[in-house]
Write a structure and sequence with these properties.
Chain lengths: ~375, ~525
């Protein structure tokens, strides 16, 4: 008896234990997180309003049905009222019910409409901060149009992010509180959607379109979200992390970013001839962040969607062909153009790809070679 | 009996043909109805198997069983198999079986076309399955990782599988349109003398509206996927922004079909309920006229609110306001339908056989799904819900009770009529309870997942979503496996062993209508002399 019990009870305990373990280390939610701005608060409120109305209606319907199936049953000897549909109620219910429902509908639509207007219409203010959000397969690019700063944001690996895996990135989207921010969404390849629940809006990033939304953050914090529109293989690996900071801290951050940018530009434009080892070291780092999501760290790719680079005809063939595909991408595939990278970065990546994983071509590509190939 | 009548009888009152020719060449509405239902049953199991694979993968965080493209392909296939393979053919099967019996017609108006519209389906299903199988072969291209909405530009990246899918959709569309034409012609021309439109059984009404909806919207989908095919192979740029096209146009074309499709799936089951509830409440359907009116209103409004599936694409304020108000207004006719069902139960003398259990379950769960639908219709709130697991929970709460449970109710209700045997009531009730409990464990927690921030169509998720996913997956296994019991009950009833009771012409005490005046099972040909309706 007890032996048999074990078969049933043990897995059950295991499941319960697991659930408890889960609660211990993760904040699991049953509703939206606390909004981070007035606009988000309005959206949250309209959500709570409609949900309350829906719950009340649901309780009414359940109550009536349960009453009816308890009392109006044959086993209790209840006689069916064959003329119920001919009473005044039967004749007029087709008017009464729609009017009641219309009243509920009107309550919801009226409240929603007020919120909708503020959500939809971006304030026409001169000093609004513009942020361009570009979705890529499978990372985000944030362009601070007013500050000349650009941030590339990619998911961290499981080892790097631990419990925050799939909700953590290398470079966060840093935003100031107390400032109206306009988001301009677009995409470089397929449709994506920007969704951070604390910011409470979701907007599709569609190639060829610029869609806009706005928010004014009213509290500091780190808010996590992810891509919400199916965008192919690694749709699950497109987290967004918003770091909301004070305006002073934000200004400081912008200065830091600009300094980094200037240093990188200076390095790339210097006429220095780089050694093979320098390029490979630089290239490996760049490859692992920018290319490895598809072509894998081992260079083996994930065929047929993502071809291997290890021993591939392009990575071991003529340099010109290799440069061309990196600079221009390949149409109709997930391989995009990487021409936005600087000459040094492309030179380093190509040098790495042509010498790693047994592709020992011995080729060294200098930034000048990239420049002339553009 | 004179000799002349004998010859007449020999010519027309033949029995069923035997062997494979009976099925392949069939022009008999009952046989074709059976074929449709069996086809739907096979597809139900294929679609269910893909759903169980999806839930098995989502049981725990991390990627354990399948790779992301195969996962996305299963998501795509689950939807297509269930919608085009299971629900629509099953509803067409019920229509084929029941419409001629209900209106006192000897057969469908266009029997040969009826044969064609069924036999296109296996070909379409083969194409659909090929689209799944082809990538496993060398040179077969990538898998369809787009979901059933096949939005470009993602669908342009997919390999040759997408072309198989496009042609499968074309074939499925042709089949549906042919079946719809047949049903409309039958209903408008073949009704027994005296049966005016407003005396027509409710199931026939729902199918009349459904058939019109299908003819109106399926060609739009066919056009959309054809444009996609041209973009993929013939250098056009309908949906390519770089060539002056518009990727959002496809979404509009898709949902112009896709939203009425929801009512196409729903209405036949509403028709079934309109027979099941009066039968087991032992009193007439409450508000026949308002039911017909509500249905016409649903179909009309349903045609013009498609863009509520695309609130996040960045439409103008005017457009979203219109689509929001229109969508919310659908609650009026749908609310009236649900009200009429409850009012039919009210002051009835109810018994709770399996079809009635499903009917009560539908009223409660469909109301729940409908109310979360009103929440989704509200644009500002939908900025949050859109493309999250909340949406997945919502549409399963609408489509499982609204469409699939209605079909189960119909199968249990008419199975004694089709086979002449009563199914095992004890097993039927057991199936209902396991099925419904499994369903709720699967989909109820998904509401919370969506609100907490889990998007749909992801293969891997953060640990914060673990608890509800574990629960949902356990529910899905119970729910999925419960259908084996359904299969067993159906086979047992068809075989009609000694343990089962035989059904008379009238299988249920409270049943009313022409279909209960013919034998159970009905003769191969019925109503050769049309009955007179008073």
């Amino acid at each position: 008896m007890c032996f048999k019990c074990n078969y049933i009870i043990k897995p059950l305990l295991l499941i319960l234990g697991m659930v408890q373990l889960g609660t211990a280390h993760a904040e699991f939610g049953v509703n939206f997180p606390e909004p981070a701005g007035e606009l988000a608060q309005n959206i949250f409120d309209i959500h709570m309003l409609t949900m309350s109305i829906a719950t009340i209606l649901l309780i009414i319907v359940f109550a009536i049905v349960i009453y009816s199936i308890y009392y109006h049953r044959k086993s209790r000897g209840y006689q069916a009222d064959q003329n119920f549909h001919n009473t005044w109620f039967g004749h007029w219910s087709w008017v009464i019910v729609p009017v009641l429902v219309l009243g509920v509908d009107f309550t919801i639509a009226n409240n929603a409409n007020t919120v909708l207007k503020t959500v939809w219409e971006v304030p026409k203010e001169k000093d609004i901060m513009d942020l361009k959000v570009t979705g890529h397969q499978w990372w985000w690019e944030f362009d601070y149009l007013d500050h000349g700063v650009k941030v590339e944001s990619r998911a961290l690996t499981k080892e790097q992010s631990g419990d925050l895996y799939l909700r953590d990135v290398d470079n966060r989207l840093v935003l100031p509180t107390g400032k109206k921010i306009r988001f301009l969404h677009t995409s470089a390849d397929v449709n994506h959607a920007f969704w951070v629940p604390e910011l409470a809006f979701k907007k599709d990033a569609i190639p060829g379109y610029v869609t806009e939304t706005w928010i004014e953050l009213d509290r500091e914090g780190v808010f996590r979200g992810q891509c919400a529109e199916l965008c192919g293989t690694w749709h699950s690996r497109m987290p967004i992390v918003v770091e909301s900071v004070s305006p002073e801290r934000f200004a400081q951050w912008v200065d830091e970013q600009n300094a980094i940018k200037v240093a990188a530009a200076a390095e790339a434009s210097s006429s220095k001839t780089w050694s093979k080892d320098e390029l490979i070291a630089k290239g490996e780092e760049l490859y692992n962040t920018k290319c490895a999501a598809c072509h894998q760290i081992t260079g083996t790719g994930l065929p047929p969607a993502f071809p291997p680079l290890k021993g591939s005809a392009i990575a071991t063939g003529p340099i010109a062909g290799h440069l061309k595909i990196v600079l221009n991408g390949k149409e109709g595939t997930a391989m995009q153009s990487w021409s936005s990278l600087n000459d040094l970065e492309i030179a380093a990546i190509i040098t790495y790809e042509r010498n790693a994983w047994g592709n020992d071509t011995g080729d060294v590509i200098q930034p000048a070679d990239v420049k002339s190939a553009r | 009996m004179s000799t002349t009548t004998m010859t007449h009888d020999e010519a027309h009152h033949h029995g069923a043909p035997t062997g494979w020719k009976r099925w392949l060449y069939s022009t008999n509405h009952k046989d074709i109805g059976t074929l449709y239902l069996l086809f739907a049953l096979v597809m139900l199991f294929l679609g269910g198997a893909s759903a169980m694979m999806i839930r098995a993968e989502l049981f725990m965080p991390g990627i354990q069983l399948i790779d992301p493209d195969l996962y996305n392909n299963l998501v795509t296939n689950h939807a297509l198999l269930m919608i085009f393979g299971a629900v629509m053919p099953a509803a067409a099967g019920l229509a084929n079986w029941m419409i001629p019996l209900m209106i006192g017609a000897p057969d469908m108006a266009l029997p040969r076309m009826n044969n064609l519209s069924f036999w296109i389906l296996p070909a379409a299903a083969t194409m659909l399955i090929l689209s799944f199988v082809v990538p496993f072969f060398p040179g077969g291209g990538t898998q369809i990782n787009t979901g059933w909405t096949i939005y470009p530009p993602l669908s342009v990246q997919v390999g040759m599988s997408m072309d198989f899918l496009i042609f499968a959709i074309h074939l499925l569309g042709v089949s549906s349109v042919l079946a719809s034409i047949n049903i409309i012609v039958t209903l408008l021309n073949m009704r027994a003398p005296g049966m005016t439109l407003m005396k027509m059984p409710m199931f026939c009404w729902t199918w009349l509206v459904t058939a019109f909806l299908l003819i109106l919207v399926v060609p739009v989908l066919a056009g959309g996927v054809t444009m996609l095919l041209f973009d993929r192979h013939f250098g056009t740029s309908f949906f390519d922004a770089a060539g002056g096209g518009d990727p959002v146009l496809f979404q509009h074309l898709f949902w112009f079909f896709g939203h009425p499709e929801v009512y196409i799936l729903l209405l036949p089951s509403i028709g079934v309920l309109s027979h099941v509830i009066p039968t087991f409440a032992r009193k007439p359907l409450f508000g026949y006229r308002s039911m017909v009116g509500a249905m016409l209103a649903v179909a009309t409004i349903g045609m013009v609110v498609w863009a509520h599936h695309q609130y996040t694409i960045g439409m103008s304020l005017g457009a979203v306001t219109y689509f929001m108000v229109g969508t919310i207004l659908i609650s009026i006719p749908v609310g009236l339908m649900v009200f009429n069902f409850i009012a039919t139960m009210w002051r009835g003398a109810m018994t709770f056989e399996t079809p009635m259990l499903f009917a009560v379950g539908i009223i409660l769960m469909f109301t729940f799904g409908g109310l979360s639908g009103v929440m989704l219709a509200v644009v500002p709130a939908d900025m949050q819900y859109h493309d999250s697991m909340f949406v997945v929970a919502h549409f399963h709460y609408v489509l499982m009770p609204g469409a699939v449970f209605g079909l189960f109710a119909g199968v249990f209700y008419w199975l004694p009529k089709w086979t002449g045997n009563m199914y095992d009531e004890r097993l039927g009730k057991l199936f209902f309870w396991i099925n419904v409990i499994g369903f709720n464990i699967t989909f109820f927690p998904q509401h919370f997942l969506g609100l907490a921030g889990m998007p749909r169509r992801i293969i891997d998720y953060n640990v914060m979503f673990t608890e509800f996913n574990v629960l949902s997956s356990i529910g899905a296994m119970i729910f999925g496996l419960s259908h084996l019991l359904f299969l067993y009950i159906v086979i047992q009833t068809i075989r009609g062993g000694k343990s089962l009771k035989r059904s008379g012409a009238k299988s249920w005490e409270g049943a009313k209508g022409l279909e209960w005046e013919v034998d159970s099972p009905p003769a191969f040909h019925t109503w050769e002399t049309a009955p007179q309706i008073k």
